[in-house]
């Protein structure tokens, strides 16, 4: 007979390991957020020209806003933003689509796009936004994230670049 502690240990060994990321010391300060956005912009521009920055709601939006401003300053090219609302944030998540691009901001059609988010864990949201951007005629050049917990280097041929990569040590 298996006692409770052995059973707990077996369950714990099978459970996926994840960590919580608290970056409010960056997000709570506009100057720090701009510095991080400038670093993400520098990484993005190494992959080519950018016309539009798509921020993944909710936490990718402040980065997208500041990145568009930084990219415009660095390149002299007008750079717009748009917002992707992932399926997981929608009021009806059983809807079969991958998410939606906000119609209140820049359109993705014909644009060279950097996608930005704060943290990537599984890559599912990244995969969804890339599909939606391509379906709407956009050219996703690169995905930039502050923190990568997924270990993915690319999704559907689009490179993923991060400032910080998190790995589990065993």
UniProtKB/TrEMBL annotation:
Q: Does the keyword Glycosyltransferase apply?
A: yes
State what protein this is by name: Orotate phosphoribosyltransferase
Q: From the Swiss-Prot or TrEMBL record, what is one GO molecular function term?
A: orotate phosphoribosyltransferase activity
Identify the InterPro entries for this entry.
PRTase-like, PRTase_dom
Record keyword Glycosyltransferase present: yes
The organism's place on the tree of life at top rank: Archaea
Where is each Phosphoribosyltransferase domain found? 33-155
Q: What Pfam families has UniProt attached to this entry?
A: Pribosyltran (PF00156)
* Gene3D superfamilies referenced in this protein's UniProt entry, alphabetically: 3.40.50.2020
Q: Which GO terms describe its biological process?
A: pyrimidine nucleobase biosynthetic process; UMP biosynthetic process
Keyword list, A-Z: Glycosyltransferase, Transferase
This chain's source organism reads Methanobrevibacter olleyae
